[in-house]
Amino acid sequence: MSGILDLISKGGLVMIPIFICSVIALAIIIERFIFYKNYFIDIEGFFKPILTLVENGNTEKVLEHCQNNPNPLGRIIEAGLNEKGVPRWKLEEKLNLAGQEEINALDKNMRGLEVIATISPLMGLLGTVIGMVQAFNKVAKYQGQVDPSLLAGGIWEALLTTAAGLTVAIPAVVMMHFFDRKKEKMAFMLNKYGTQFIYSMDKKFYPESASQVSR
Hints:
Layout: H1 2-11, H2 15-39, H3 43-55, H4 59-68, H5 72-81, H6 88-106, H7 110-141, H8 148-205, H9 207-214
């Protein structure tokens, strides 16, 4: 801990917001890891009994199955079946709305991580520029009669902020792409099984619309 504080003191005031950004980014990454770990389930295994229940016309059992096994797909289906006897278009509308809410939940805090990944290297560059200005100001002040080792030390300390900014930004960018891939995968799965559910409901309760789709 003392080593980190020492680097912050050498890098100047700009190191403080960079350090704060690193703490926030780490908190977001940990929170998203826990969220995705609990969010991802065996959707295919969960969905198979639903198809059987729909084929038997037992929508109440479908709701019970969704309530007993809380997961994103279950919440989407439950939202569509919460009202009995809804028309097909309303069922589809409700499922689409619930699906969008689930996708929005996947994006929680990702904007903050994106901002940190963008501004951290910029703050590092700002700190370096300020440090270089101060270092060369010494050269001008002493009319070039300055110890080269002192100048090199000043430049080294100035470059610390750029290194710190990149150290924060690179992992943040990597994790952003990792979470984006997770989101795309889950969005695809929800859309796939949500569409299958609507089609199975069409065949059982709205045979005319199902036959039109098959054409």
